[in-house]
Amino acid sequence: MIRIRELKISANQNQNLMKAIMEQLKIEKKEILDYRVYKRSIDARRKENIMFVYIIDVQVKDEKSVLNRCKRNKNIALVPEELPVEANVNKGNLKLEKPPVIIGTGPAGLFCGLYLAEKGYRPILLERGEKVEQRVKDVYDFWKNGKLNPESNVQFGEGGAGTFSDGKLTTRIKDPRCRYVLKKLKEHGAPEEILYDSKPHIGTDKLRNVVAEIRKSIIREGGQVLYGHKVTELQIEKGEIKGVAIENKGHLETSIVIAAMGHSARDLFESFYQSGVPMETKAFSLGVRIEHPQKQINLIQYGTDKNAHILGAADYRLSWHHPMGRGAYTFCMCPGGMVVASASEAGSVVTNGMSAYGRKGKNANSALLVSVTPKDFEGDDPLAGMRFQRKWEQEAFKLGGENYHAPVQRVEDFLASRPSWELGSVLSTYRPGVTPTELTSCLPPYVTEVLREALKKWDQKMKGFALKDALLTGVETRSSSPLRIKRNERMESDVKGLYPTGEGCGFAGGIMSAAADGIRSAEAVLERYYLSES
């Protein structure tokens, strides 16, 4: 097929894509056998003429003639060959007596499990929480009634934390496994446009169904997915994995454990540390959620709210580096979404953002985060960052009223260093409720200082971003793992048979990179072992 790059179509004038392809290739419609959109993005730099920018793959009757005719056009060439992910992966020569065990069913665990199951390795996935159907009920009960289930919530359960998010599939990593992940998501019910949108997303409503379908595929291929199976301890003898202990269910023998638990599995981090698994603390970020009217963001980004039905709800990504060295940035921006209660421990308030596929909510929200490093933590052990997170989550719980209500503050009040006594025109989407207050009590002073300066800088870049009634909700602490479980170039810990994987172990950030890392761990197992048929 022939690939056309930088094919621009006006979003305002509703131009015809087929006609644009014909003009680029200098051919008639009858000469085009088929075409597909490989990538689509939006160029909104000129508000009066916003453009869709495409990469299109086209199948024509006389490929050689078309290429010769367009040889001066640098944006037209043959489609490069894409090798399948498994092309260079061969099964190893070491025998596995027992199937590999995967801890966690987030993106890393699910895609590791799916890949191993498709290769005949019959993996056993252990999930401390509930399957996604029951998990949704538990989460909504918490949001409605403030009743937290510590084992089934936004952090724990089938699908991982990403299940209650915007379902973003953007990533900065350049890895062919990402294409594989997108194709598998599409096969399991995700919208087709995730294969070509430059900022693909599934939405929490559709992602839940996709997660359930992936589970069914793993089981169909011979794997097992077990819920309410909380791993409490690794069984290690002479530096080698021998199995895992499961709360109230005994133990499970295995010589391979893929540790794909999420970034909130604090009790398991403590257990690993006590077992001597090498790990280290690492930098992460801390901050708040900001909510604007979605119409305000559309107006800033598109110059008008009228194009939103064509272009979709507008998003943004901002960053700024404080002269004193700390970075501030927006994270997990959710157009037309809601701020969600994401606690996994009693007596804490944690926030996150979530959007449905349609992104039709009245508010836009995003995390506003500031970098923190091990120098900011109390203690120098690998769990210091985890304790640092917990401290500020508990302070937010107290400030909110000790009932899982979140502390909130209007941007105007935050910039003026005064408490908010009531909300303005922007109403909070956070449930079970919010408490107007002053956020300085649940944030380190240096984070507050950087956020104030960043808001002013971003308002200069996006005029109206520091809207006086825009709402800040505290706290966001779980943007990434507070530690890293060490591994070597073979993806393995110094503990033989332990494969630290994904976001929780400090090797990913988001659905795509976590899923890709899960596949890498599966490949590492394949390249060394084959599963006994007995």
From TrEMBL:
Stretches assigned to the FAD-dependent protein C-terminal domain: 284-479
Record-given protein name: FAD-dependent protein C-terminal domain-containing protein
PANTHER family per record: FAD/NAD(P)-BINDING OXIDOREDUCTASE, FAD_NAD(P)-BINDING OXIDOREDUCTASE FAMILY PROTEIN
Domain of life: Bacteria
InterPro entries hit by this protein: FAD-binding_protein (IPR028348), FAD-depend_C (IPR049516), FAD/NAD-bd_sf (IPR036188)
Pfam families with a match to the protein in the record: FAD-depend_C (PF21688)
